[in-house]
Design a protein that fits this description.
It holds the Pfam family CBS. The protein is of the alpha/beta class. Helices cover about 50% and strands about 10% of the residues. Strand 9, helix 9 and strand 10 form a beta-alpha-beta unit. The longest helix has 26 residues.
């Protein structure tokens, strides 16, 4: 099976085995919203009548129209077909009424270049059915509705979303988090694809963290400056499973550099309270203390930029290894502008940093896939768990690390591993079938990881699998997945290390 396209471990399997190997797609969550808004909505001026607006909606076969200033093009409001029919039928509205009299003023908006996952969480949190997409100067780009962003409410999540949104204290949040994990386990056992499941879990974990931050925010007086809660690692990549710890930070924008230290001192107690609350909700504290409550990761926008600049300029191997997960950062709560500026600046730098990319690629290939030259599994000689493979450090990482290198090289905004591979595959001119095989191999390893996590409560064993505990077919599938990782590492060596 030397050719990439030969990897097809799902052929000839029964239905339950097929669910083990073949993943449902759910990877549009980090696609930019402007790629999802395929049609421009009807746009009418404030003085347009309900009759004219209804006609335009009917002709365009849409369910909503945007009211915009004809001189500037700036959106002023939103009106839906359902609301107009209700006004006319039950509230005495007339067809000749100006649409501005019945529009939703100040509708929910989001930047057109935001990832779809951000819109999905925002719509769920606010209970909105539509989002206006705007350009950087405030002009309307398009409109997305729930039909464009299906997914987060799948798997019976509506009741969970309701319990998260109505939680008023830590015990209620802890109960909601437990319910999410239990329902996620049920979805996994019923055969939900790993990519879809991780997006589902990550979306609900986002809502839990956002609600915890809201509760903590209500108890303190925070400085009146822009700030944002950042997430790194698996949470930043939307790849959270059932055994996850915290990797987070905080970015704030001081009015002047001299105010940085006082602002940090004001944010730290709040960040520490959030870290503690998340710990109570089942999100273990980071063993490496990569948390917003640590002064090292509660930084101003300028400090974050300098921190990344230092990693790029002096790529010490150990520093690159320790700092890799920070390059997967994603804004979660607060003012996203500073985080988006940081991401845009970072991606403009990384593509030309040859030494940094060399070191990052070297770190990626330093972990060999645990399959020997004769096709036998190899082990890391862990004394506590002999004859096992760590499917996080010797499995998932084999795909996460190369995807990160290529994404930073080619300026890919996405942080999710599958989305990164899809995007860089297009940049490199690789066939979609080849990329799909790599993603399938990654998700297969993730499925084995999740299965192990649901069978043990030992935090040191949640990612460790003994191949002897697998049946012959699953051992073969795991070996084929590792072979795909070897091929990815070979491509990395050729591109960055030769």
């Amino acid at each position: 099976m030397s050719d990439t396209n030969d990897f097809s471990p799902t052929q000839g399997l029964d239905e339950s085995q097929l669910n083990m190997g073949m993943e449902q797609t759910g990877g549009a969550d980090q696609a930019l919203l402007r790629t999802l808004a395929r049609r421009r909505p009807p746009v009418v001026p404030p003085e347009a009548t309900l009759r004219d607006t209804l006609y335009q909606i009917s002709q365009r076969q849409e369910d909503a129209a945007v009211i915009a200033d004809p001189a500037t093009g700036l959106p002023l409001g939103l009106v839906t077909l359902r609301e107009m029919l209700h006004v006319i039928s039950f509230e005495g509205g007339g067809l000749d009424d100006p649409v501005a009299a019945h529009m939703i003023g100040a509708p929910l908006t989001i930047a057109a270049d935001s990832p779809a996952h951000r819109a999905k969480v925002l719509m769920t949190r606010r209970g909105a059915k539509h989002l206006l997409l705007i350009e950087g100067d405030g002009r309307l780009f398009g409109l997305v509705g729930q039909a464009d962003l299906l997914g987060l409410r799948a798997g019976g999540a509506e009741a969970l979303i309701e319990s998260i949104g109505t939680a008023r204290d830590l015990p209620a949040m802890t109960l909601a988090a437990d319910q999410v994990r239990k329902r996620g386990a049920e979805l996994f056992r019923s055969g939900m694809g790993v990519e879809a499941l991780c997006q589902w879990v990550s979306g609900l974990h986002d809502l839990i963290a956002m609600r915890v931050i809201e509760i903590m925010e209500d108890e303190v007086d925070l400085p009146a400056v822009p700030w944002c809660w950042l997430v790194f690692g698996s949470e930043g990549r939307l790849e959270q499973t059932f055994a996850t710890d915290q990797d987070n930070g905080l970015i704030f924008v001081p009015p002047e550099p001299a105010a940085t230290e006082s602002l940090r001192a004001a944010f730290l107690p709040f960040a520490q309270a959030v870290n503690q609350a998340l710990h109570h909700c089942g999100f273990e504290r980071c063993r490496g203390n990569i948390m917003a409550g640590n002064p090292s990761w509660c930084l101003s926008e300028g400090e974050w930029r300098r921190r990344f600049a230092d990693w790029l300029a002096e790529p010490d191997p150990q520093a690159v290894l320790n700092g890799a997960i920070f390059f997967d950062f994603r804004p979660l709560y607060g003012s996203f502008e500073a985080a988006d500026r940081l991401r845009a600046w970072l991606l403009a730098q990384t593509g030309s940093e040859v030494r940094f990319l060399h070191h990052l690629a070297q770190q990626a290939v330093n972990v060999p896939p645990p399959v020997g030259w004769a096709g036998q599994f190899s082990y890391d000689r862990n004394r506590d768990f002999p004859h096992t493979i760590d499917l996080k450090l010797q499995g998932a990482r084999l795909f996460v690390d190369p995807a990160r290198v290529w994404a930073l090289k080619h300026g890919v905004w996405a942080t999710n591993t599958a989305e990164r591979l899809r995007a860089v595959g297009a940049c490199l001119g690789r066939g979609s079938a080849d990329t799909a095989v790599e993603i399938e191999a990654f998700h297969l390893i993730q499925r084995f990881r999740i299965n192990q996590q649901l069978q043990t409560t030992d935090l040191d064993a949640v990612n460790r699998v003994d191949p002897d505990d697998l049946n012959e077919l699953h051992r073969l599938m795991l070996k084929e997945a590792f072979k795909q990782a070897k091929k990815m590492q070979a491509r990395l060596r050729q591109q960055f290390l030769s």
